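Late entry, evening session. Most of the bench is empty. Finally got around to the prediction I had been postponing all week. Sequence below, unchanged from the version circulated by S.P.
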Amino acid sequence: MCTPNNDIKFCTCEPTEEIHVNFADEVERIYEMRKFEAEMAKENGTYNDTHFKWELNRFHKPLLSRMGQMSTARKIFNDKLTEEAILSFLNSGTSFDFEYVPDEKDLIEIREHFKYLQINKDSGIKRPKINSRAMSFTFLSGEWHIGDYSGGYSYRNLKKGTVT
C-alpha cells in the first residue's frame, strides 16, 4: 500500500480507469469526470496544484542514431525532492510500492504536472508555467546515478505513477 508520509515513495497507486468496449463513450465519460474534478478544484483553490509523476523505463536496444536537442536536467523540485535525496532513496532499495529489481541501464524520469485537467483555455484565466525539464536517474554498475545516460538507446516503459 502506498500512503503519503515524510519519505519519498514511487507509487503506482494513482487511480486507473479501465476502458471498455464502447471506447468513445468511455473516453468521453472519463474526460467529463476529470473536467468536473478540475472545476471543483477551481472553486476550492487547488486548480493550480501540481504533483510529480515518474516513469520507469527498461533498456530495450541501442539505436543507430540519435536525434533531438540536449537540455539540462532539473536538480530540485522542492525541499524534499532534490536529486541527492531521490538518489539516496533509490539506492536504499525500498523506493517502490511494487516488486522491482533494477536492470542495467534502467531509467527513471520525474516531471512536474498539474493535478487537474486544464479547462476553459480561452477564458483568460492563465495557469503559471511549469518547468517541464525532467529529473532523471540511470541504473549502472549496480547502483542508481543522477542523470540520463540514455543517448542512443531505445527504452520500453515498465511502470509509471506519482511521487509522494
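Two things to note before I forget:
The chain has one domain: 49-163.
The beta strands are 10-11, 50-62, 107-114, 135-140, 143-146, 153-163.
Will write this up properly tomorrow.
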